[in-house]
Design a protein that fits this description.
By secondary structure, the protein is α+β, with helices and mostly antiparallel strands. The chain has one domain. It is built from three helices and four strands; from the N terminus they run βαββααβ. The radius of gyration is 13 Å and the shape is globular.
Length: 84
């Protein structure tokens, strides 16, 4: 991906970063396949993104994943699901 979420980049660099956002729930990730994980909490994005790493609307109530792909994007530096 052209624009990657920080934990994804860390995972690709060999650090166990998926666990920042996910709870392991089966086999882990490999370069060939995705692992099995559960999301820690629906509102967990604000845990990091209200500490200066998010945008102006990081404190807004809502579902971040409705507009943003938490792994990354090839089109949007804001990891938007659709370009508007």
């Amino acid at each position: 991906m052209k624009h990657m979420h920080g934990p994804i980049g860390a995972e690709l660099a060999g650090m166990p970063a998926c666990v920042i956002c996910h709870i392991p729930n089966g086999p882990g990730c490999t370069p060939q396949r995705k692992g099995l994980f559960q999301l820690k909490a629906k509102e967990m994005c604000v845990t990091c993104h209200t500490k200066g790493t998010g945008s102006l609307h990081a404190n807004a109530a809502g579902n971040c994943l409705q507009c943003h792909d938490p792994h990354g994007s090839n089109r949007s530096p804001y990891m938007l699901r659709k370009e508007g």
